[in-house]
Amino acid sequence: MGVKGFVEGGIASIVAGCTTHPLDLIKVRMQLQGESSAAAAVQNLRPAFAFHGTTAAAHHIHLPPPPPPPSVGPVAVGLRIVQQDGAAALFSGVSATLLRQTLYSTTRMGLYDVLKKKWTDPNSNNLPLASKIAAGLISGAVGAAVGNPADVAMVRMQADGRLPAAQRRNYKSVVDAISQMSKNEGVGSLWRGSSLTVNRAMLVTASQLASYDQFKETILEKDLMKDGLGTHVSASFAAGFVASVVSNPVDVIKTRVMNMKVEAGMAPPYTGAFDCAMKTVRTEGAMALYKGFIPTISRQGPFTIVLFVTLEQVRKLLKDF
What we know:
Elements: H1 2-19, H2 21-31, H3 35-44, H4 74-85, H5 94-119, H6 129-159, H7 174-185, H8 194-221, H9 229-259, H10 273-284, H11 293-317
């Protein structure tokens, strides 16, 4: 039964991840908007140039940070990608998405199913919401730790097209991305931002899987709809919205930390997740943590719908195994 849950969850996750990949790519590009101005602003917070003969007070003059560039909406971002690199560019990094779903989502979906069955009261066949959330937190953390290398590769491949041609990494595939990162930046770079990945995965899994089960149970208990496609779509869309609201701030910071370029002899743009969050908020405002929210919900909604509708169908197909 345990293996069956992993197989069902893996198939559903791969289908959902690949079909909604262009929306995820647009979300990543939007989350990186304004990042260069943030780095410039941090430089300007250092003491201004002091020439010989100036007073000590001159050393404490700060240049005002440059205003962040205006944000561009998801439709404009998508059109720009197609115009610059062609329609196929919307699927940049899809090989990394495939690997990520195979590792991360298969693990979290399967482990959540195992924990849910283990903790469900056999007499009432009921599992409290708190237990569902706990199962989501645990399974999300384990899945993220397993899938972090593919996650880093996916973010970099998706973000590569926004860089000038001379600065692009030009990874050929997820295997090439992982091998180049290991060779040029060390094996540890494959787990860059892993604490953020784990935190985000815990939040997403707990809010997405637990809320889907809760919404579905509520709909069926109150006899609002029968157990069919309508119930699955309604519960999954509501779960997608909850997951988007909860996870977006962590997702923005995770994307920026994973995408940062560390050059030999140079200080990294961010020293960690907290530093990235502070620099982002200081230079772009608190709402910068919700950059890409529209494409996030636009992607998370369809992703969650495809995920759970596919999962329910796969369960029906494999019910006799």
